C-alpha cells in the first residue's frame, strides 16, 4: 500500500500538472516497454517500440540496471529542453549519491563513471539518448497525449470545483481514500511505502503509457510528483490530423468548426460573418449554437456584440488551430 502523508500546507499546495511532461511520459513508456506491463493489449506497441529504438538511446538502459532509476531524473519540465536543464543543474552530490546507490552491486559502464565525475561529454550522451528515445517513442503521438492530458485536467478541475480536493484525488484511483491527512492506495506498492510531504506539496500528473501505478517521485527538496495511469487503457496511437479535424467537423459542421477556430480571438458578428463568408444572420446563428453548448461567450457593448471561445471551446477545438 502507498500512503501519502499531507500536512495542512501540503493540501494547500496540491497542483495538477498544467501540461503533459515529456520526460516523465518517456520514462513511463520505457518502463512499460521493458517490464512488459499492460499485458497483451500493449504487446504490439511494445514490440514496435523495442524494435525501433535507435542505438543512440541505449545509454538509458544503463541508468536502470536493477529497475530503479536514479532520482535526479525525476523532474517536471514542459519541454524536453526544460526537463534536461533541470536534470543538468542537479546537485553534484545528489547525482553521485544516486549513481552509487544504483550501481552498488553491478558493474559500472564507462560513461556512467564519467557522469559520476561530472564530465560534460557524459551529460551530452544522456541528453542525446533521451532525445533519440523521445523522437521514436513519443513524438509521433505527442498531439494525442496533449489532448488526453487536457481531458484529464478538465475532469480533475471540475471534480475539485464540484466536490472538493479529497474527491478529486480519490477519483484518480478507485478504492483509494483520503482521511486524517493520509491518502492510501491499496495494492499500489509492495511492500508498504510511506511518502511524507512535510510541506513540499504534491504535483499530480497523468500518464498514458503506464497502465500500472502509481509512480511516485520523492526527491528531497522538491515537490513530490505522483504519476497515475489515465486514458483509455491503450497507448496513444499516431493520428492523422486531417482525419481528426474531419471527424470533429462531422459533429459540429464545417462552418461551425471554422467559427470555433476563429473565435480563439474575439470577433463581432460582422467580422465573424466576413471571415466565414456568410451573412450576419448565419454567423449569429452559429455563435448562438456554440454559446448554448458552453463553447463561446457573447458580450454586448452598446450596439456591438463580441463573441469569443471559452475554455471548453478551446478544449474541444484541441490541436486544430485557425
Task: Characterize the structure shown.
By secondary structure, this protein is of the alpha/beta class. It folds into 2 domains: 228 residues, no CATH class; 77 residues, Winged helix-like DNA-binding domain superfamily/Winged helix DNA-binding domain (Arc Repressor Mutant, subunit A, Orthogonal Bundle). It contains 15 helices and 11 strands. A hairpin with a 2-residue loop joins strand 10 and strand 11. The model has no long low-confidence stretch (mean pLDDT 86).
Specify the biggest β-sheet: 4 strands, mixed
Shape: globular
Structural domains: how many: 2
Fraction in beta strands? 5-15%
Structural class: alpha/beta
* Contiguous uncertain segments of 5+ residues: none
What is the strand tally? 11
InterPro entries: ArsR-like_HTH (IPR011991), Metal_resp_trans_reg (IPR051011), WH-like_DNA-bd_sf (IPR036388), WH_DNA-bd_sf (IPR036390)
Protein name: ArsR/SmtB family transcription factor
Could you give a short description of this structure?
By secondary structure, the protein is of the alpha/beta class. The protein is built from 15 helices and eleven strands.
